[in-house]
Design goal:
Elements lengths: L1 E5 L3 H13 L4 E5 L12 H6 L13 H6 L3 E3 L3 E6 L4 E5 L5 E5 L2 E4 L3 E3 L7 H4 L5 E3 L3 H12 L5 E5 L3 H12 L3 E6 L10 H13 L3 E4 L2 E8 L6 E7 L5 E6 L1 E4 L3 E3 L2 H5 L23 E3 L6 E3 L3 E3 L4 H14 L14 E5 L2 E7 L2 H6 L4 E9 L10 E9 L5 E9 L4 H13 L4 H5 L15 H15 L13
Parallel strand pairs: 1-2, 1-7, 2-3, 7-18, 9-16, 10-11, 10-16, 11-12
Antiparallel strand pairs: 4-5, 5-6, 8-17, 13-14, 14-15, 19-20, 21-22, 22-25, 23-24, 24-25
Length: 474
């Protein structure tokens, strides 16, 4: 039995590891486009900041670790074409040598590609030492070369999502003055603007210039002084022009699924142009599975969605690897649970926001609340800002967003919400959970339960349903 995985990141490696676990006699081959299999690109900002001193530590497992499991790694090898009828993958190695690798089953884990925004001059300068569209380890190394071989003192970050915010902290830690530019009305668009504004305030308190509602239209080289610099210009939300000249530009404009290999082989595409798979991660091609940032994700509340997350890719890859050996396991589904640290603040979300819930056919009620992370009389208590979304008709919990101090266990608490939503619990049922308590760490009613109570009060006041326990019909 030969299982071939294309892609050396989370999904491809997880699939290969699972296949090897279940059948050590199987021949497992992983085709990796670069020399960095199983690396955490999410950790790149912490290498840039210096928190991770050696880039090699970003590897979840070393090449030796992976090969010790029995898998064969084909590094620096590009998959050029899949012949699904013949069960063949056509590849080219770094020396330009072409080869055909036959397979019994194939797992496609090609991931995602960075979105390149429509900025005049970006394509021309995108390969310059001072302008970077970040996505891979090679991109990370290029940024480090820019920072280490120049006297960079200023930087612009285009995009204020998770990685953009983390990189703002990383560059600030290096003593670089950062301008953070986001075209949407507030930074961290994954959460409601009321919470995004708290993140913006934290950035500004650390010296980051925040320009939300601002569109970059042009980027160009500026050799007017002794240092090569980059000039960017565009317009603010009210149409006023803006211009900045900086030493380094980083672009984080989101990602799109990398599907050309699969699509050319005849794979059907679905939501957001991602590869259409069922919950067993099967494509419409015989004996071909797909997983990770290149595929449509089963969402437990929405059905079909596109959710490019490392946590999701690991789980999907494991399902694909098991089923590639004849298994029948299903991917349980995602809720888009995310968390990010920005200096001393942590922001997180899980499930649906109000507008997402309404679009999905729910009747959402979203309520803002605040609570201390532990008893206020014990030193060091921090307030957690929350937004709870539930369904008025059933009382079902649909989504939670939290922002609080990094010591306030925000990640732990969003996981409580994710568990509740995963299990189909009502908001009131969260209030009944037996959560831990000691004054330095919590309260008799946890902060999450204060949030649940605030939602229940608002639901009662507006005529919504507040079930007394878990409702089996929701």
């Amino acid at each position: 039995m030969r299982v071939v995985a294309i892609g050396g990141s989370d999904a491809g490696i997880s699939a290969a590891l699972r296949a090897g676990e279940l059948d050590p006699s199987a021949e497992v081959i992983v085709v990796v486009a670069d020399a960095y299999p199983n690396f955490s690109i999410c950790g790149s900002p912490y290498y840039v900041s210096g928190d991770v001193a050696d880039w090699r530590n970003l590897a979840h497992r070393t090449v030796a670790d992976l090969e010790a499991t029995g898998m064969r790694l084909r590094l620096d090898t590009t998959a050029e074409r899949i012949d699904a009828d013949a069960h063949e993958a056509h590849v080219t190695d770094a020396a330009g040598q072409r080869e055909v690798i036959g397979y019994d089953t194939l797992v496609i884990g090609t991931g995602a590609l960075p979105v390149r925004p429509d900025i005049v001059g970006l394509d021309h300068l995108g390969g310059a030492d001072a302008v970077h569209v970040l996505h891979s380890m090679a991109d990370t190394f290029a940024v480090m070369r820019s920072l280490q071989t120049s006297t960079a003192r200023t930087a612009a970050i285009i995009g204020a999502g998770y990685l953009g915010l983390e990189m703002a902290e990383a560059l600030t830690a290096r003593g670089i003055a950062v301008t953070q530019i986001e075209q949407l009305p507030e930074v961290l668009p994954a959460v409601d603007s009321e919470l995004g504004s708290l993140v913006a305030s934290e950035l500004r308190s650390r010296g980051v210039e925040v320009l939300a509602g601002t569109v970059v239209k042009r980027i160009a080289g500026d050799d007017s002084d002794l240092r090569r610099r980059i000039r960017i210009d565009g317009a603010t939300a009210d149409g006023a022009p803006f211009e900045r000249t900086v030493d380094v530009v980083l672009v984080f404009a989101g990602v799109r699924p990398d599907v050309s290999l699969a699509a050319d082989a005849g794979a059907r595409l679905g939501t957001r142009g991602a590869i259409d798979v069922d919950r067993q991660m099967r494509t419409n091609l015989t004996d071909v599975y797909a997983a990770g940032d290149c595929v449509v994700t089963h969402h437990r509340l929405l059905g079909s969605a596109y959710i490019p997350l490392g946590t999701t890719a690991h789980k999907q890859g494991r399902v694909a690897g098991e089923n590639a050996l004849g298994g029948r396991r299903e991917f349980a589904g995602s809720l888009g649970t995310q968390v990010v640290k920005v200096f001393d603040l942590v922001a997180s979300r899980t499930g649906l926001r109000d507008h997402e819930a309404a679009a999905a056919g729910f009747e959402p009620l979203t309520v803002a609340a605040e609570a201390d992370d532990h008893k206020a009389y014990y030193p060091g208590a921090h307030r957690i800002a929350m937004r709870w979304t539930g369904d008025r008709r059933t009382g079902r919990l649909l989504g939670v967003q939290l922002v609080g101090h990094k010591d306030a266990e925000v990640a732990k608490r969003i996981d409580v919400a994710a568990t509740a939503i995963y299990s189909g619990m009502s908001v009131h049922a969260v209030n009944e959970l037996d959560l831990s308590y000691t004054p330095p760490l919590g309260s008799p009613w946890d902060a999450m339960q204060h949030g649940a109570q605030a939602w229940a009060r608002a639901a009662a006041e507006t005529g919504g349903r507040v079930p007394s326990s878990v409702d089996p019909d929701i």
